[in-house]
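Technical annex, item 7. During the second reporting period the consortium partners agreed on a shared format for inverse folding records so that results from different sites could be compared directly. Each record opens with the tokenized structure and is followed by the designed sequence. A conforming record, contributed by the partner at site C, is shown below for reference.
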């Protein structure tokens, strides 16, 4: 007579059923979420160069981080790290936290976001509206330690900064790179000359860079970064101990240190964009697209124009693709608030004029910090 070994954990079967149910809910959500739009723009000064912006703000939780949050929950479930009824925690400056809170509500779990106290107020309210709790930290450098403290008390730490580059399937499964390249198939220049993205956790740049290599494409990857921040400094020195030289007002990118998910060798170029130019470009995007997007989307636009100007100077034609990461409504009290800008002595007018001249002439003028 054969005996089936019994688990030492009486609840193992019910736990397995819960995990299977949670995974099924995530699969259903992915099937319900249509892919995001790829918006095309052409500018007078760049004849023969097409610009595309993938609007990740239309995800159900409102940003590019919807993809990452789903992947992090899948990773935690499939690695046995997340159990029924377990609290969930992560360190985030906002958009990832909002997406993680959205998925926590879907799965019926409690969620705590450890956030810098300077995070845009609208993002804090959005996490709370989804049922999440915000643990605000005065020193942004301490968010990881605070999240680890929650994990030590039994919470499942999703750990976006430690796990982003491995949680996402970079070969396929409708990741951001696969989605872009499929949407480009029927365009005049279907293989982009450049794809431009920022670096927060490093997961997006790692996924895109790996996928481009996997597909054996000539497309190059550029990371758009605030000056002197973690990715730019680390990429330049190839040192993982590098710290940022300057702080930034652009949330979601511009990390103070080199995060574990930063993969330097899959990135071809880094362009450092002054905060004032990123904010000016975010305002410009509203004029171009009729909707507001966050500061990191402005950073991406500036880098795209700089790359396009270099292509034009060399007589090259082609396409450049970038991302619209999150909606501008999250920054109405900060980046889109003239009083907030004035308090910080930020005058975006010179940068906006320079960017508009670039759109018209196709020539790049260096921007002042």
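Designed sequence (site C submission):
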């Amino acid at each position: 007579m054969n005996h089936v070994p019994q688990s030492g954990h009486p609840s193992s079967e019910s736990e397995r059923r819960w995990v299977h149910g949670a995974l099924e809910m995530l699969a259903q959500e992915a099937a319900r979420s249509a892919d995001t739009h790829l918006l095309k723009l052409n500018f007078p000064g760049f004849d023969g160069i097409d610009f595309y912006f993938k609007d990740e703000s239309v995800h159900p939780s409102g940003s590019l981080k919807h993809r990452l949050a789903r992947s992090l929950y899948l990773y935690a479930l499939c690695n046995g790290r997340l159990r029924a009824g377990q609290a969930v925690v992560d360190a985030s400056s906002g958009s990832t936290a909002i997406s993680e809170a959205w998925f926590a509500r879907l799965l019926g779990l409690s969620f705590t976001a450890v956030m810098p106290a300077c995070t845009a107020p609208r993002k804090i309210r959005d996490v709370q509206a989804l049922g999440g709790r915000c643990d605000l930290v005065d020193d942004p450098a301490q968010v990881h330690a605070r999240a680890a403290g929650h994990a030590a008390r039994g919470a499942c730490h999703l750990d976006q900064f430690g796990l982003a580059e491995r949680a996402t399937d970079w070969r396929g499964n409708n990741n951001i790179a696969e989605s872009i390249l499929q949407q480009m198939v029927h365009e005049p220049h279907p293989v982009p000359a450049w794809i431009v993205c920022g670096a927060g956790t490093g997961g997006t740049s790692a996924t895109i860079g790996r996928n481009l290599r996997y597909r054996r494409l000539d497309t190059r990857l550029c990371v758009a970064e605030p000056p002197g921040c973690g990715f730019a400094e680390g990429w330049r020195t190839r040192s993982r101990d590098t710290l940022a030289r300057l702080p930034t007002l652009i949330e979601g990118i511009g990390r103070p240190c080199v995060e574990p998910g930063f993969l330097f060798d899959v990135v071809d170029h880094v362009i450092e964009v002054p905060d004032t130019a990123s904010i000016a470009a975010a305002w410009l995007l509203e004029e171009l697209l009729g909707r507001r997007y966050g500061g990191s989307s402005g950073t991406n636009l500036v880098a795209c124009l700089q790359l396009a100007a270099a292509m034009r100077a060399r007589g090259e034609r082609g396409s450049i693709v970038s991302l619209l990461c999150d909606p501008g409504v999250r920054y109405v009290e900060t980046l889109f608030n003239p009083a907030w800008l004035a308090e910080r002595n930020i005058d975006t007018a010179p940068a906006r004029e320079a960017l508009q001249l670039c759109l018209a002439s196709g020539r790049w003028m260096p921007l002042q910090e």
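Residues 12-32 form the longest helix (21 residues). The radius of gyration is 21 Å. All partners now use this format for quarterly exchanges.
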